Amino acid sequence: MESLAAGIAIGVGAIGPGIGIGLLAGRAMEAIGRNPEAAPKIQTAMILAIAFTEAIAIYALVVALIIKFV
Q: Which segments does the entry list as coiled coil (predicted)?
């Protein structure tokens, strides 16, 4: 039962960050396509935002591990 709960926790917890990173990267590529001179600034902001978004998935992973092993 704990395995199912852990699987659901990480599955649901990874949906949001996955969608967010996809949208973020797509919009960044559009912005770079429109204004190639601003690519370094856009890329820096994109990587920082991806790191914050990925942190949410890591929190979901931690919750899933706690459910599984505690």
A: none
